[in-house]
Amino acid sequence: MPEISEQAPDFTLPVTGGGEVTLSDLRGKPVVLFFYPRDDTPGCTTESIGFSANLSDFEAAGAKVFGISRDTMAKHDKFVAKHALTVPLLSDEQGDVTEAYGVWVEKNMYGKKSMGIERATYLIGADGRIAQVWRKVKVPGHVEAVLEAARAL
């Protein structure tokens, strides 16, 4: 799991709306990566709508924002259309990026253990280094906290 001040692991992933995003191509601007477990679940929907609603504020702060899960592009496209999301979503179907960022973890729900994505957000500085990390994110107030940190860079 990368730590604050370390270089953010680079990646190239497909993005909603077509094309690909390569993290290293975004150097010079802060980048927010919010990892979430699954499209169209209550917490993930609330978080994605929150980032979409504040996307212009992040852009005004000079920051790019991307949501990442292991859902397929087809699922992402349905999720975006259903909730009119404006935040770009990246598909990490193979799981390489969720592994590199340490968010693919063992979860324990009602005594049943399984692997899944831990809700986490990384704020990456314009220099490509990790500026802040939020682990085990609770959705209420989270988008605002990330926006405040992005503005402070």
Structure explained in plain terms:
By secondary structure, the protein is of the alpha/beta class. The protein has a single domain, classed as Glutaredoxin, CATH 3.40.30.10. It has helices spanning 42-53, 55-60, 73-83, 96-100, 142-152; strands at residues 12-14, 20-22, 31-35, 64-69, 89-91, 104-109, 112-117, 120-124, 130-134. The protein has a 5-stranded mixed β-sheet. The longest helix has 12 residues, at 42-53.
Keyword list:
Glutaredoxin; 153 residues; five-stranded mixed β-sheet; two-stranded antiparallel sheet; alpha/beta
Quick structural gist:
By secondary structure, this protein is an alpha/beta fold. The protein is built from five helices and nine strands.
Helix and strand arrangement:
Elements: E1 12-14, E2 20-22, E3 31-35, H1 42-53, H2 55-60, E4 64-69, H3 73-83, E5 89-91, H4 96-100, E6 104-109, E7 112-117, E8 120-124, E9 130-134, H5 142-152
Parallel strand pairs: 3-4, 4-5
Antiparallel strand pairs: 1-2, 3-8, 6-7, 8-9
